[in-house]
Amino acid sequence: MTNIIGITGGIASGKSTVTAFLREQGYPVIDADAVVHELQAKGGKLYQILVAEFGEGILLKDGTLDRAKLGQAVFADSDLRARLSSLQDQIIREELLARRDVLKQAEEVVFMDIPLLYEADYSGEVDQVWLVYVDKAQQLDRLMKRNGLSSQDAENRLAAQLSLEEKRGLADVVIDNSGAVEATLAQVERLLREMKDGRRQ
């Protein structure tokens, strides 16, 4: 029986640090963001839908998606975000679950890195959820530094997701990423050991 573990967090909470470590340890990780990028690549299923819906104004000169322009428009307009979600969600879900089901044939543990795991209702598709957590002040600070955003733009992006506090109340496991990276990875190592020993099912 394959153990399917959903990894989630919030924007700039440090989830990619955890998933990179899991890969280094030899675990398969399905990366929802990478899958979306593939589907949004020129000619992909989502690319075709986005161009049909929003027109060629969302494209760069080479015909690829202008992600920055699309992202800015979407984060600033909740109606547009809802429309885009309904257009994309079904296609993304089908692709993610198809990849999960292929890996289940060969792997004992499969991680699914899904930033919007709760918002897009994937909790029923995984056996447990591990949340990478930082407090809001730290999250805002990291996001502004990482993406070069103003505090208002950063706030808008956080407002587009459930807060990490809300997710904390829903998750099976909370990985505290507010300290040094080494401390975060030590928590992940302990969880993996418990899983191997059968203490974490």
TrEMBL record:
Pathway in which this enzyme or protein is active: Cofactor biosynthesis; coenzyme A biosynthesis; CoA from (R)-pantothenate: step 5/5
Record-level Gene Ontology MF annotations: dephospho-CoA kinase activity
Transmembrane annotation, as ranges: none
Recorded catalytic activity of this chain's protein: 3'-dephospho-CoA + ATP = ADP + CoA + H(+)
Binding site for ATP: 12-17
EC number: 2.7.1.24
Tagged with keyword Nucleus: no
Annotated keywords: ATP-binding, Coenzyme A biosynthesis, Cytoplasm, Kinase, Nucleotide-binding, Transferase
Localization per record: Cytoplasm
Main location as per UniProt: cytoplasm
Pfam family, one: CoaE
Entries under PANTHER family matching the protein: BIFUNCTIONAL COENZYME A SYNTHASE-RELATED, DEPHOSPHO-COA KINASE-RELATED
UniProt record similarity statement: Belongs to the CoaE family.
Free-text function comment from the UniProt entry: Catalyzes the phosphorylation of the 3'-hydroxyl group of dephosphocoenzyme A to form coenzyme A.
Protein name according to UniProt: Dephospho-CoA kinase
Organism: Streptococcus oriscaviae
Gene that this sequence comes from: coaE
